[in-house]
Write a structure and sequence with these properties.
The protein is α+β, with helices and mostly antiparallel strands. The chain is about 25% helix and about 35% strand. The chain has a six-stranded mixed β-sheet with strand order 4-8-9-7-6-5, covered by helices on one side. Strands 1-2-3 form a three-stranded antiparallel β-sheet, with helices on one face.
Length: about 150
């Protein structure tokens, strides 16, 4: 019996497989991080800012940008004008939404929602609002109003 080896392929298929593996690993990491963040997101109130800690959309927002006198607790039922309508850049999973959304009234909002009832709504001077599912939204808003620096 005579055996003839098949000429080895170039390294192009290996690079293609490596790129696909990196993409899959990135997606799996993002999903795992989002799953973790959906259970561990929080809002920290400091002397001069609030800090949203969670997934990819966390940030610090100075008190000067918050309109805490207009903050209120809302129930985002199906027909509420402040309910998120379109996700523009964020995460939308059953029972968890975070990131940038367009609301039914056309307003832009940064949301961290794990429920639709008893949501803290805080407008900002920057043309967007915050919608946050904090544990005790009334106490959260009162705390914001106490920490708001006076000029």
């Amino acid at each position: 019996m005579e055996v003839f080896a098949i000429t080895p392929a170039s390294t192009k298929p290996l690079w293609f497989i490596a790129v696909i593996c990196v993409l899959i690993a990135t997606v799996l990491f993002a999903l795992a991080f989002t799953a973790y963040a959906s259970q561990h997101s929080r809002v920290e109130i400091d002397a001069n800012r609030i800090r949203l800690v969670g997934d990819f959309w966390g940030r610090e927002i100075p008190f000067d940008l918050l309109k805490v006198t207009e903050a209120r607790v809302m129930d985002l039922g199906k027909k509420d004008e402040h309910a998120p309508r379109w996700r523009t850049f964020g995460t939308g999973l059953p029972g968890y939404a975070s990131g940038w959304f367009k609301l039914r009234n056309g307003e832009k909002a940064l949301v961290y929602l794990s429920r639709r009832k008893d949501v803290a709504y805080i407008p900002t001077t920057e043309g967007y609002s915050l919608l946050l599912s904090v544990d005790n939204p009334h106490a959260f808003i009162e705390t914001l109003q106490r920490h708001k620096p006076t000029r």
